[in-house]
Design goal:
The protein is α/β, with parallel strands linked by helices and about 550 residues long. It contains 22 helices and 21 strands. About 35% of the residues lie in helices and about 15% in strands.
């Protein structure tokens, strides 16, 4: 069935077969597992599924800081939930849009088409984002700004399947600070998706969903705003001794404002765009998003009847803090501890509002993060690679071999896109140009491997973890002519403009929490291989709905009560 479905998608069957082979060993279900799944589905009809993504949240945060967690937050999930300790994304790049698309589709970028936060679109000749849509307008924020939509998502989500199964009675809402993080998990036709407009401080949507904001969202924007935190300080939650495991609070490689406390003004006398941007990168942004989640539950009446609804919530502030300070910073520890306490309060709310035995939580992250290069270089490895230097190497090698020209159209996400017009002018095949460019790239210190479009589409890939990860992240229409993978602890950035980032196929970027908690879920820690791609099919089995259309994940039957 999976193989037939992959063939019907009409993309490169060879590329997609790699995805299938990577998961074929995971999709078999024994008779005992079928009985367990059926029994769990019969016993548990949750009224509400809450899908939580913590942006840039490595699995090891759960073990590094567990002694500082309160009862009711992460401890509640770790002690009472099904915890999959060895869950890794099986695609690269490990970016926000890719992970959020996988979350509720159960599919990697090769099948969702979401190959990055943005990419070069050959048809339009322009760089596009995963959710940009010039046919829509922003609603509730900047005047006449272009809107966003899921039109580039090529797969159905769990929410789409819930809506189909219930003839539209199930309600599906997605919320986040990032547009892509609200839109992609919610699917093609949710009841709403809302994200933050840092220019105005409002939560917004687009004309893809509504011509104007619902009345309750207008009220929320008027009464519950970031403005209430203007002038307040982000100070450490716990005594200084609790943070000593992370070294000093003012490491030289962190961004300029690198020490507690942080005054939230954005340098402005009253709330404006600079403040709203600063606020978005503080733990208080998570508090406002949790308030929005409660408002959505109450005003959309999520979980109010026996038809299962879905709310997806993505906490973006953790990612912005992580980029600015790195995973071994006081700031990342503090926002992690604050997220723990926020979740404890949110779960208490769900207990009271929905009923402790009437909802299910699925928690994960969209990716991890690499340690700051200047920090790990002290241990003898890692560094920064210059995108412009890579471009120069490729341009020089191609001009030397085929004649002087401008060969590269775009360099995005480690993808090199050739200018087809240059290839045609010089009468050079893409395959020949790719081979020459690949040799030049592999000579760069810090590059682990480079794969050509021709190589990937022909299936001529080595049987390595990196090659499989690249194939699973490669869409034949949307990716470039070359995909470059750095060595561990290296990444591309011009200078130190980016403190740290993510995107690689290595464990610090791929290893994230996968935890289920609530109705029909058994408590336990499970150490077998798993992936965030398993979340959607597992929830589909629990809810007795069709597994999303291109899902390749397995049903984690271990999570179900026997």
């Amino acid at each position: 069935m999976n193989l037939c479905r992959l063939r019907r998608l009409g993309a490169s069957s060879l590329c997609l077969l790699l995805v299938f082979s990577a998961f074929s060993s995971l999709t078999s279900v024994t008779a005992q597992q079928r009985r367990t799944i059926t029994r769990a589905a019969s016993d548990a009809r949750p009224r509400l599924v809450v899908g939580i993504v913590i942006d840039q949240f490595r699995y090891d945060y759960l073990t590094r800081f567990d002694d500082l967690f309160v009862e009711g937050g992460f401890k509640r999930l770790l002690n009472g939930g099904a915890v999959f300790t060895n869950a890794n994304y099986i695609h690269t790049p490990t970016y926000t849009a890719c992970g959020h698309a996988t979350f509720m589709t159960g599919a990697p970028p090769a099948l969702t088409g979401i190959v990055g936060n943005d990419w070069y679109d050959r048809e339009s000749g322009a760089r596009v984002t995963s959710v940009s849509d010039s046919k829509t307008k922003l609603v509730g924020g900047r005047q006449n700004a272009s809107g966003m939509s899921p039109h580039r998502l090529l797969a159905s989500t769990l929410g789409d399947e819930l809506r189909l199964r219930s003839n539209g009675q199930a309600k599906v809402i997605g919320i986040s600070y990032k547009d892509r993080s609200a839109i992609l998990p919610a699917g093609k036709r949710p009841n709403g998706a809302y994200w933050y407009d840092a220019a105005t401080g409002n939560f917004v949507t687009s004309t893809y969903y509504f011509e104007e904001l619902p009345a309750w969202m207008k009220t929320f924007n008027q009464t519950q705003r970031a403005d209430q935190w203007f002038g307040k300080k982000w100070e450490k939650l716990l005594p200084e001794t609790a943070y000593q495991r992370n070294g000093t609070d003012d490491a030289p490689y962190e961004r300029k404002e690198n020490k507690f406390p942080y005054a939230l003004t954005g340098g402005e006398e009253k709330p404006g765009a600079k403040f709203y941007n600063q606020f978005e990168a503080s733990p208080f942004a998570n508090e406002l998003l949790a308030a929005l989640a409660k408002a959505a539950i109450e005003n959309e009446q999520l979980g109010a009847d026996d038809v299962t609804d879905l709310l997806t919530v993505s906490f973006s502030a953790n990612d912005l803090v992580g980029h600015a300070y790195g995973p071994y910073s006081h700031e990342v520890e503090d926002i992690t501890l604050r997220t723990d306490r926020l979740l404890a309060e949110f779960f208490r709310y769900l207990d009271q509002k929905i009923g402790a035995d009437k909802y299910v939580v699925a928690l994960t992250a969209d990716h991890g993060v690499v340690p700051v290069p200047e920090q790990v270089k002290a241990l003898g490895y890692g560094g920064r690679l210059s995108p412009s230097a890579l471009s120069e190497k490729v341009e020089s090698a191609l001009s030397k071999r085929f004649g002087e020209d401008k060969w590269i159209k775009q360099l995005v996400n480690g993808n090199v896109y050739f200018d087809d017009a240059a290839l045609e002018r010089r009468k050079v095949s893409a395959a020949d140009a790719e081979a020459v460019a690949k040799d030049a790239i592999l000579a760069i210190t810090g590059v682990a491997d480079c794969f050509t479009r021709t190589q990937i589409l022909s299936g001529q890939l080595p049987q390595t973890m990196i090659a499989r990860s690249v194939a699973n992240g490669f869409h034949p229409v949307r990716n470039g002519n070359l995909v470059v993978v750095t060595q561990p602890y290296y990444f591309f950035s011009e200078g130190a403009t980016v403190i740290t980032t993510h995107g690689s196929p290595y464990r610090y970027d791929t290893h994230v929490p996968v935890i289920f908690y609530g109705a029909g879920i058994t408590a336990g820690w499970f150490h077998s291989e798993s992936s965030p791609a398993d979340i959607a099919p597992t929830l589909a089995a629990l809810l007795r709905v069709e597994i999303p259309s291109t899902s390749v994940g397995r049903i984690l039957s271990e999570a179900f009560k026997k």
